[in-house]
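Quick one: structure tokens for this chain, please?
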Amino acid sequence: MNNRELGRIGEDAAVRHIISRGMKPLARNYRVSRMGEIDIIAQDGDTLCFIEVKARRGDRYGTPAEAVSPIKRNTIIKVAQVYAGRNEIHDMPLRFDVIEVYLEADSSIKSVKHIKNAF
């Protein structure tokens, strides 16, 4: 299984997770060309959430959230600013989350951890 398939499995699990928690998905893989992408944009009550999803089979090289580098965080923030501007969102609280998806060897879901206000 390649990284793209692993990412899709993780994102699908993350979407199911946020829906089960009452959040409303608004967009997936929101891309601004030459700038970057946000995995999931969702609404949690009155808060707009920008969510990075990291799927891993283990934490041998650190937790999935630790893989969200300062450069990646800055990219997500910039893309979020573009999304808010294009959608005329001005007076809504924003939040940046990370969802860690741990997979079994057969790629089934082992666990999902939602880290709110991750950065």
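The radius of gyration is 14 Å.
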